[in-house]
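INFO batch 0412 | record 1 of 1 | parsing
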Amino acid sequence: MTGPQDSGVQRLREGEALPEWVSRLDRTAFGVAWKAPAEHEAVWVIPEVAFARWAVVPAAGEAELLRIAVDPAHREGGLGRVLLEACQGDLEGQGMNHLFLEVRPSNAAAIRLYRTCGWEPCGQRSGYYPDGEDAALFRWSKS
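INFO prediction complete | emitting tokens
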């Protein structure tokens, strides 16, 4: 793993297997765990506590946050912000100047996090989630 060690955030190396705890947290947060990252994906972790998974498109200078989760026992302590800001900084350092994500409008805690980290609303996908809830779209761009 490599990454901004001072914050406790580490980036998994390309091709590195997902730790089992990431799969457990993925199931806890989203109901199902995704498989190993695809070639265009990157994963950052705070070991045993939180992870963020991104799709990265270097040719376009863009990345999309696919999933971010903090273990329920460690929420409300600012770790989501630490992880998100570390990812943003690392991606910006790699030339990713435009970041995107989608979130349920009902997920007020996540929306507060994104806004405090400089993300701005940029659209909506109607009926996006299986239960019919819309997806709110957000973007972050290098200043």
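INFO post-check: Strands lie at 10-11, 41-46, 50-57, 62-70, 98-103, 120-125, 135-141.
INFO record closed
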